[in-house]
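Hello support,

Our group uses your service weekly, and this is the first time we've seen a run hang past the timeout. The protein is FAD/FMN-containing dehydrogenase. I'm not sure whether the cause is the sequence or the server load. Input pasted verbatim:
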Amino acid sequence: MTYVIDRADLGRLASQVAGPVLAPGDADYPAETATWNETLVERPAVVVGATSTADVQAAVRFAAANDLPVAAVATGHGAVVASDGAVMVNLRRLKDIVVDTPTRSATIGGAVTAQPLIDAAFPEGLAPLAGSSPNVGVVGYALGGGLSATLGRTYGWAADHVRSADIVTPDGELRHIDAAHEPDLFWAIRGGKGNFGVVTSLDLDLVPMTELYGGGIYFAGEHVEPVLDAFRRLVAASPQELTLSFAFMRLPDQPDVPEPLRDRFTVHVRVAYLGPPAEGERLIADLRATAPALIDTVTEMPYTGIAAIHQDPLDPVPTYEVSALLSDFPADAEQALIDVAGPDADTPAGMIEIRQLGGALGRDPSVPNAVGNRDAGFQLFGGAFGTGPGLAEQFRAPLAAISGALAPWSTGHQQANFLTGYDLAPDAVARAYEPDTYHRLREVKRSYDPRNLFRINHNIPPET
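Update from on-call engineer: The timeout came from a worker crash unrelated to the input. Re-ran successfully.
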């Protein structure tokens, strides 16, 4: 059922907002409501294209006055719940970046994506703890934990490096929060994602970094077993400056796919090493010698080029995903994964990744936050690329078979940013946190959002 807002009420909202205010049927409504993950067709009752914090406040107050849920969107990579009948706040115009070199920090708007922040910090000899995709929103990434595939094992989670935030809470108030000001809320948003309001600005640490030794090596599917054996030997002895992952890839026969990878199963090993290039080359020598490479891009590279390591898709695409945290990835787990998703398996999964964790990712931060499950050694993540929305049930069983095959090594938990569209039930969301952390998050939710207006997400309901 579509919730229809009276045009007079929309007019009053529009008079308080500098950006566009659009309802179903308006010409620009489809473009303003589109998200990067095309598994959903968004149908909010109204979308506000926020140009400022004041616009966000007006939209949130309107939602509260009309008892409507709020859906905040920056890039839409993490869109998993339909915004039907909600007030959508589109933050994509909030893209300011200020780099403060003396304090090694940056203040960013709510919709800044990774690559512009990387590019802004690079001339100052600094870098953010960015993820594998260049066009993911930094705020959502950091508030969900923020797993950096290049810097995480050395510096920890991105959420550990958030200094302060400006957030519009469900009462429409703008609050500047940090460890000394509303510390419970500051604790909760760093790990609890968008359950507590709309973060319009974030102040976060940068680290000294300009170059690394990294890239990817693609191997043909017939070499999967020796390649994974070499991967496991390397992670067993890797320093925390080295981060590895591999992915089973089934790429289509399309012009934008490199010819050696088209329409075949390949193993993509990803490498990021923060030490001297010569030492990095020595570390991966055994891996390189395992089998002939179809493509090998591992070399000294600027931090501005880290998107080339994982080569995540840049264009919007419907993705149906699965994830799990693993305590270990021994030989038996390797074989189980090959059996269910390897070159001879019949699966629609286009990408299945095992990513190394550990190092600084396993340590508690100096300022506590809600990011938990730090004891995992690896993460399973993958998915199928659909042709459009509405295919979740088609892919549910084959994706569940992959996570099920690795269940003996699962910790029983997931990382908040890698919860998927299959993880919407309360018990599934709770698996992203330790029990005490989840209970405290619900208490903070009760204090700031007792009506649960911010529920178009992996929802943390208020404590009752």
